[in-house]
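== Sequence and structure of one protein ==
=== Format: two labelled lines per protein ===
==== Data for this protein ====
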Amino acid sequence: MVGLKLRSVHLLTSQPGTDPTPIYRCRDGLYATDLLAAALVWLDFFTWLNDHPSDKAAICRALDIKDRPTDVMLTLFVAMGFLKCEKEIFSLTELAREHLVKGSPWFIGPYYASLKDRPVCRDFLNVLRTDKPANWGSLKGEKEWAKAMEDGAFADQFTAAMDCRGVYLGRAVAKALDLQNHRQLLDLAGGSGIYVCCIVAHHPHLKATVFEKAPVDRVARNAIAKRGFENRVSVVAGDMFAEPLPSGFDVHLISNVLHDWDVPVVKQLLISSFKALAPGGLLVIHDAHLNAAKSGPLHVAEYSAMLMHSTEGRCYSVAEMEGYLTEVGFGGFETIPTAASRSVILAKRPG
């Protein structure tokens, strides 16, 4: 057992000899091309915008599409170099004007038209028009992500996927944090517990608790025990939307959670954290964050397309997140890059 614990600590504090970011990006950006195809072929978006440079609200009204998915679409196309935004007005770049507008001799629309009936492409058209998430993976027999997570088999599979990602990303989060003056960490919706296991492996004085909803709490307990961290990482079952968060913690971690939810829910979770966090405590938000101008990074904008398709959320910019945190009462913000285009935003609760 001692040998197992030492191997677990070594794995979670070491790093691979190569950078897997390109492999992450293949998966994270998988749906971006389908969103481009939906806009180009189904909406003829670029031809319309060429004639009507507009702000987001006008684009939504004219094309009868909703705010959240339109925000993701516009951010992606800016990051791709197809749009520019000046004083909140979106217009085409020369690249888009030459190749994405009907009537141009170099129009590439027919090249994409053969892909318009791909399930994900059709899903994007429906999400843009309704703002309702599609089924996970566009599978006909699957539920949307939030409901699918209530099924034990799906929860096992999805949590395992996030766990293997967290072995790499969690180490980078732990390395970015200075927690020498903190003692108790609460991980909200912490999945398998991989992130707090990485953090306590780097910070031996720290103890942590994963707050998770059933049936994922069972998955977390098993995963934490297999890694040999059951004496330093506990699990509390609960619903972060239906009850107050546990008290007595001077650090809160929200890792890869806020991107699954729209703005009202994001604010609700930040309020819950502020109420439960000890005065002077630290909130750590780990996620894929867009830059303040929402012009990139492209990797994050591509990932946001996947989130928009299958969840109620999207990737948020550093400026957006700091604005929400300020509304709640947090301050002292700092953003630190971690790995694979992710970062942590640190926020302090006043003492």
Notes: The chain has a mean pLDDT of 93. Strands lie at 83-86, 89-92, 184-188, 207-212, 233-237, 251-255, 282-287, 331-337, 343-348.
